[in-house]
Design goal:
By secondary structure, the chain is mainly alpha-helical. It contains 22 helices and eight strands. Helices cover about 50% and strands about 5% of the residues. Helix 2 crosses helix 5, helix 15 crosses helix 16 and helix 17 runs antiparallel to helix 18. The longest helix has 28 residues. The radius of gyration is 28 Å and the shape is globular.
Length: about 625
């Protein structure tokens, strides 16, 4: 592999390492892959076994999805996991998917080089690497990314090729790959299949008689692969993509997740996907210049027609049109190669080449910034990781028969990074052998106000309060604090700790005299002689115990993350992993609306910051079972 081409897999892996956790959209595939790796595929008592241990029966999602992708990921990942250990299984599974998409992109680059020239291939590679979304999502376990590899190879097969005798066979293979992607992974690829076939027919590159046999055979083959396999795993006769199409399109169920204006893909999604500010001008130039017009229009027409037709669907997401990015980038690369070739003869071409180079560097910088920000969007995964570290360092319980600590995971954590791989880093079949579990997880939902009040009561926290306004007296004992002033260089917690707390709209502003505390006194400050919180303890140090029965006072702060309860963390000592959140310097205000399991006697709450600072472990007093 040449150094420039190696940027594609290297960049995908870099994005994977920078953001190793997953979001709710990826949950089906990642959870299904875990279950296949850990529990295998049963041959006896199939229905009972699936309902007992497989996650998709407990959390089936809005529509059923195909198991073809998870089975392939598990099969390829299993020997690699056996070598490196199950604690790295999630990274390995995502890495396998990322390398699959990297291989598809490398093949596209190879076809660009062979059909459009070396210069165009180089421009296409650097433009692709500097695009954030494709590199970031290439390793994410979305059905779209399984389809993306197939559509990318399909598009590559339609690029110009020196051997014209093989053109008909390349077209048949291209159409067959689109059929497989549409039937098995994402039904919207059928639109791309339609626009591609229409373009081929309109330009007389093929005939209906040549396309129809391959279309029928590949459709039947895809159905034979998907329907029996998915019927087995879902334990009902099923073609998942037909079900998803009926729910999302015919019934309009996709609109429940939000709608966007008809022009969203053209005015928002595609500019963000291409990211390069010069891309629209390069694409237009390639389509209009006589030297590149014919080839560029064959690249642009199917992609833009697909996006235009798909814009009729009210629910829109950028990942739905990923398949259009490689061909559009190829058209832009073709125009960039043309200006580069003429740079030696024309000052205007030299200026255009320099502008394109600067645009690529700017898009690479923007992609790096987007990666840094996007890696902060997984508080659930961060919380679970920190809780696992606490559990690993906790002393063994005195009673060997004592149950494992019970972890209650809230909705925010579930949708921002908590996966079965993170819950079960040892890869043990914990649902078949509960005693083997190091931690027990509960995801019971209670979204009512009463459920939240019960949670906060169990955590020994006061109910939520609204944010305090500037100049308002502090809640609690009602006394005004005189002489409270933040010293230069003091932390944000330098304030009186007693009597509740407030969260002003500008928490970083310097507190004025005689206006009382300006920030909350959440668990964790070491109380000084004058009653002020003077900073966080070091990692693992004990915090100040509040008065008996008082618990930690967090005022208007809300709980975010995972609550860990009971077990070897101490019979009477709840533990708090509390950390400051933020890019905006404000606290997270998503309430944990879960009800903890009955009989809980001690808890850990992980509040994950966006600054990735080290966790602070504090101990609080406790008054017995909740």
């Amino acid at each position: 592999m040449k150094p420039l081409a190696s940027l594609i897999p290297a960049t995908i892996l870099f994005h994977l390492v920078a953001a190793p956790y997953t979001k709710v959209e990826e949950s089906f595939t990642i959870q299904a892959t875990h279950d296949i790796l850990v529990y295998g595929t049963p041959t006896r008592n199939i229905n009972a076994r699936f309902h007992a241990v497989y996650d998709h029966f407990t959390f089936p999602g809005a529509v059923p999805r195909s198991f073809v992708g998870p089975v392939m990921l598990a099969g390829i990942s299993q020997p690699i996991v056996a070598i490196f250990g199950f604690q790295h299984a999630q990274m390995i599974v995502r890495g396998v998917l990322g390398m699959y998409n990297a291989a598809a992109l490398l093949y596209y680059a190879h076809c660009v080089k062979r059909g459009l020239g070396t210069s165009a291939a180089r421009w296409w590679t650097v433009m692709t690497v500097s695009q954030f979304h494709i590199m970031f999502y290439a390793s994410r376990t979305l059905p779209n990314m399984f389809a993306f590899g197939l559509t990318t190879i399909s598009s590559a097969l339609l690029l110009p090729h020196p051997d014209q005798a093989r053109k008909a066979s390349r077209i048949r293979i291209s159409i067959s790959l689109l059929v497989f992607a549409a039937v098995i992974f994402r039904s919207e690829v059928a639109l791309l299949l339609f626009t591609t076939a229409a373009t081929l027919l309109a330009t007389r590159q093929t005939t209906p008689r040549a396309l129809l046999p391959g279309f029928i055979v590949s459709s039947l083959a895809a159905l034979v692969l998907s329907a029996p396999l998915d019927s087995y795993f879902w334990q009902t006769p099923l073609w998942p993509e037909l079900w998803a199409f009926a729910f999302n399109v015919l019934r309009g169920g996709a609109s429940d997740w939000g709608t966007s204006p008809w022009h969203y893909y053209f005015t928002s999604a595609l500019p963000r996907l291409l990211l390069n500010p010069s891309a629209p001008f390069l694409i237009a130039s390639a389509a209009l210049h006589p030297a590149t017009a014919r080839t560029a229009r064959l690249l642009i027409a199917p992609s833009l027609a697909f996006v235009a037709i798909y814009s009729l669907q009210p629910h829109k997401e950028a990942r739905f049109v990923f398949y259009a990015v490689p061909p559009l980038t190829a058209a832009a690369a073709q125009a960039a190669a043309l200006t580069t070739a003429r740079a030696a003869k024309s000052p205007l071409a030299r200026l255009a080449t320099a502008a394109t180079t600067v645009a690529v560097l700017a898009s690479a910088a923007a992609a790096a910034a987007l990666l840094a920000l996007s890696s902060l969007n997984y508080p659930g995964g961060e919380a679970l990781s920190h809780v696992a570290r606490v559990a690993a360092l906790a002393p063994a319980p005195a009673d060997a028969a004592a149950p494992a600590p019970a972890i209650h995971v809230d909705v925010l954590s579930c949708v921002t990074g908590v996966t079965l791989f993170g819950q079960n880093p040892a890869g043990r079949p914990v649902l078949l052998a509960p005693d083997a579990a190091a931690l027990r997880f509960d995801k019971t939902e209670d979204r009512g106000a009463a459920g939240e009040a019960r949670l906060l009561a169990r955590l020994r926290l006061p109910p939520r309060r609204g944010p305090c306004r500037r100049g308002r007296r502090p809640v609690g004992d009602g006394r005004r604090r005189r002489g409270v002033r933040r010293r230069r260089g003091a932390q944000a917690w330098d304030q009186p700790c007693r009597g509740g707390c407030c969260a002003p709209s500008r928490p970083w502003a310097r507190a004025r005299r005689r206006q009382g505390p300006r920030r909350g006194c959440c668990a964790g400050g070491r109380q000084g002689r004058d009653g002020r919180v003077v900073g966080w303890p070091a990692d693992g140090a004990e915090g100040v115990y509040p008065q008996e029965g008082q618990g930690w006072r967090c005022g208007c702060r809300d709980v975010v993350g995972a609550a860990v309860c009971g077990g070897p963390f101490g019979d009477t000592a709840p533990t708090w992993i509390g950390r400051h959140v933020s890019v905006t310097r404000r606290w997270v205000t998503k309430a944990n609306r879960k009800q903890l399991p009955s009989g809980v006697s001690s808890c850990i709450v992980a509040v994950v910051p966006y600054d990735r600072s080290a966790p602070v472990v504090l101990k609080a007093s406790h008054n017995g079972p909740a």
